[in-house]
Amino acid sequence: MDMRSFVRALPKAELHLHLEGALDPETMMRLARRNGVDIPFRSVEEIRAAYRFTELQDFLDIYYRGMDVLRTEEDFYDLATGYLERAAADGAVHVEVFFDPQGHTARGIPFAVAADGILAALADGRERLGVTSLLIMCVLRHLSEDDGFAAFREAGPYIADGRIAGLGLDSTERDNPPAKFERLFAAARGAGLRLVAHAGEEGPASYVAEAVDRLGVDRIDHGNRALEDPALVRRLAERGMTLTVCPLSNLRLCGVPDMRRHPLKRMLDAGLKATVNSDDPAYFGGYLLDNFVAVAEALELDGADLVALARNSIEGSFLDDAAKRAHLDRLAGAAAGRAEQVRP
Ligand code: HPA
Ligand code: ZN
User: Fold this and answer.
1) Which residue of the set 20, 96, 201, 210 is catalytic?
2) Residues with Cβ within 6 A of ligand 1?
3) Which of 136, 68, 130 is nearest to 99 (CA)?
4) pLDDT tens per residue, range 286-296
5) Is the pLDDT of residue 344 over 80?
């Protein structure tokens, strides 16, 4: 059985996906025209040619510029719908998606325009595609904690009724340690939000420890550089901390020179609950299944590894126990008798 079909058939969750990072060049051009927004590109090819970043900040500069085409609720709806269709085609049964409200409110787009467009798409995706979802708002760590608090306050009604389920931390990691947001994360925990933070993507292993110890996160996004600290790795493994790893993104931004040197297998062997995710698929060259296949081929992962990655994604999700149990039973069924036959 070929690996791509095997992985597609495994029920799995995507836990690290920035919706604004799913804005592919075609959609960017279409929305720029639809909204009369001036972008510095004349064609899809020119947009693709601009994706030459090798550092997080270079990527973020293009990412923030790209999101300027998102103006109306319909734009956010279309963006999220396009992503959900891809995720469903890749065999995702559940997604927990990030959005960056400050990236929109700073441009004069109201919080509700972004949130309502996305939430409408998530609701339709549940009905039409059978993909369940949760929405996580991220705060931009290059901005102040007060700015993050302002976004958190705007989200109040959405948090109160569960439409926003979690708080995350993204953007420029270097010199913006997790502890900068300690009070905000404490307030978010008090409001019942689940907590995640990017750490150890470009920042040091100590930022991963800080996200766990000072922010009290439920998951670490990326976490690659935790491997530089063996004692921290043991602690993360003992806690069963989920890492949302993004192989194709890491190739561009995390200094992984070649997928054959990607740390995913080392993470699994160290007992870490690693998962596979796409991060910003429109920018990094692949959606969920592409990420699985790229890393599995390069590292010669076997069927058991692939099932473990899918299992980690369900267990590390913020679904309730009954939903997790149901997905895990289906996963066991999908893997039974087939995992041994997957060709690496
Ligand atoms: N890292 C940090 N911030 C981000 C990313 C990322 O990969 N994508 C979108 N915002
Ligand atoms: Zn990310």
Assistant:
1) 201
2) 18, 21, 56, 63, 170-171, 198, 201, 249, 279-280
3) 136
4) 999 999 999 99
5) no
Residue nearest to atom 10 of ligand 1 (CA): 171
**Which listed ligand is nearest to 277 at the C-alpha?**
2
**Do 130 and 85 meet the contact criterion of CB atoms below 8 Å apart?**
no
CA 194 to chain centroid, in Å, comes to 14
pLDDT at 1 over 80: no
Separation in Å, CA 9 to CA 35, 92, 133, 214, 316:
38, 9, 19, 38, 19
Pairing of strands 132-140, 219-222: unpaired
What is the distance in A from the centroid of ligand 1 to the CA of 2?
Answer: 32
Length of the chain: 344
Task: Give the environment of ion ligand 2: residues with CB less than 5 A.
Answer: 279
Residue 59 to residues 21, 54, 78, 89, 249, Cα–Cα distance (Å)? 10, 7, 23, 27, 10
Ligand 2 centroid from CA 341, angstroms: 33
pLDDT band at 54 (very low <50, low <70, confident <90, very high): confident
Give the confidence band of 220 by pLDDT, cuts at 50, 70, 90.
very high
Topology annotation, domain 3-23+76-335: TIM Barrel (3.20.20)
DSSP for residue 159? H
Of ligand 1's listed atoms, the one at least distance from the Cα of 20 is: 9
Distance 9 CA to ligand 2 centre (A): 25
201 is catalytic: yes
Residues 175 and 204 sit within 8 Å (Cβ to Cβ): no
Q: Report yes or no: 259 and 293 within 8 Å, Cβ to Cβ.
A: no
**What is the per-residue pLDDT across 106-120, written as a single tens digit (0 to 9) for each?**
999 999 999 999 999
